[in-house]
């Protein structure tokens, strides 16, 4: 699976958009980009995923660059409850078991 | 509804005890997973079950023994654990194996080995 690089930490003001970057420069054409977050002492929560196109759901938007070497997760109006560790994960399509391998993630702190 | 239920939420056990962690999902998912998460570290995959058969064992010590009695249940039997096995144990499930299937996690079971 392609390796991902994320900043260790980021801050965001409540009510503003939080833009979390992820670099996956070695991604191949058959790999998905997944985002999860983990709020302290809870299980990881699925946010969104994409292959080539940008995606949006009720939680967030995922912007994938045209060359697919990087992506950005956007939380449009961050709240204090969005403070969490955010993981960007690349998963190989069609693998026998679709392994989800977590990196170190980005600690997002939303402050008042 | 994406819900994976794990019990117990907290478990304290001695090194000679035998205990089990339980996981249940009623989403009709056919793939189930155990992950282990040490403090301040990301989750690490332990086991993958697909259609109730063990598909992947990530070189986990035999003191951890998984079991999938039916398509909705996944157990992790614990025996002769060490203090360093203290961690958050996460169960997860997905419709099928394969990267196009989103994996959903439970809230985890906190295990302390004394």
Tell me what you see in this structure.
The complex is a heterodimer of chains A (112) and B (114). With 112 residues, chain A is mainly beta. Helices cover 0% and strands 46% of the residues of chain A. Chain A contains no helices and 9 strands. In chain A, strands 1-9-8-3-4 form a 5-stranded mixed sheet, with no helix packed on it. In chain A, strand 5 and strand 6 (61-64) form a beta hairpin. Chain A starts with 8 loop residues before the first strand and ends with a strand. The relative contact order of chain A is 0.34. With 114 residues, chain B is mainly beta. In chain B, 0% of the residues lie in helices and 56% in strands. Chain B is built from no helices and 11 strands. Chain B has strands spanning 4-7, 10-13, 18-25, 31-37, 44-50, 53-57, 64-70, 73-79, 87-94, 104-105, 109-113. In chain B, strands 2, 4, 5, 6, 9, 10 and 11 form a 7-stranded mixed sheet that branches. The relative contact order of chain B is 0.33. The model of chain B has no long low-confidence stretch (mean pLDDT 94). Chain A binds chain B through residues 31-32, 34, 41-46, 49, 87, 91-105, and chain B through 2, 4, 31, 33, 42-45, 48, 50, 55-56, 88, 90, 92, 94, 97-108.
Uncertain spans of chain B: none
Instruction: Bin the strand percentage of chain A.
Output: over 45%
Give me the Rg of chain A, rounded. Answer: 13 Å
- CA radius of gyration of chain B: 13 Å
Unreliable segments of 5+ consecutive residues of chain A: none
Overall form of chain B: globular
Biggest interface and residues each: A-B, 26 and 28 residues
Could you give the topology of this structure?
The complex is a heterodimer of chains A (112) and B (114).
Chain A: E1 9-13, E2 18-23, E3 31-38, E4 45-50, E5 55-56, E6 61-64, E7 70-75, E8 84-92, E9 106-111
Parallel strand pairs in A: 1-9
Antiparallel strand pairs in A: 2-7, 3-4, 3-8, 5-6, 6-7, 8-9
Chain B: E1 4-7, E2 10-13, E3 18-25, E4 31-37, E5 44-50, E6 53-57, E7 64-70, E8 73-79, E9 87-94, E10 104-105, E11 109-113
Parallel strand pairs in B: 2-11
Antiparallel strand pairs in B: 1-3, 3-8, 4-5, 4-9, 5-6, 7-8, 9-10, 9-11
């Amino acid at each position: 699976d392609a390796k991902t690089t994320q900043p260790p930490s980021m801050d965001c003001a409540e009510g503003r958009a939080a833009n979390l970057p992820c670099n996956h420069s070695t991604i191949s054409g058959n790999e998905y980009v997944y985002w999860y977050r983990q709020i302290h002492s809870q299980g990881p929560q699925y946010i969104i995923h994409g292959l080539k196109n940008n995606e949006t759901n009720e939680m967030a938007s995922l912007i994938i660059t045209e060359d697919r070497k990087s992506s950005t997760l956007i939380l449009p109006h961050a709240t204090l409850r969005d403070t969490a560790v955010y993981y960007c994960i690349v998963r190989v399509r069609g693998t026998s078991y679709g392994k989800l391998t977590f990196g170190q993630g980005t600690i997002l702190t939303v402050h008042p | 509804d994406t819900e994976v239920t794990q019990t117990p939420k907290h478990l304290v056990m001695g090194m000679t005890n035998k205990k089990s962690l339980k996981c249940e999902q009623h989403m009709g998912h056919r793939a189930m997973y155990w992950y282990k998460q040490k403090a301040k570290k990301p989750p690490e995959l332990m086991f993958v079950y697909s259609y109730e058969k063990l598909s992947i064992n990530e070189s986990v010590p035999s003191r951890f023994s998984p079991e999938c009695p039916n398509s909705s249940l996944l157990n992790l039997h614990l025996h002769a654990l060490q203090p360093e096995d203290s961690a958050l144990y996460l169960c997860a499930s997905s419709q099928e194996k394969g990267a196009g299937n989103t994996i959903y996690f439970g809230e985890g079971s906190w295990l302390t080995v004394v």
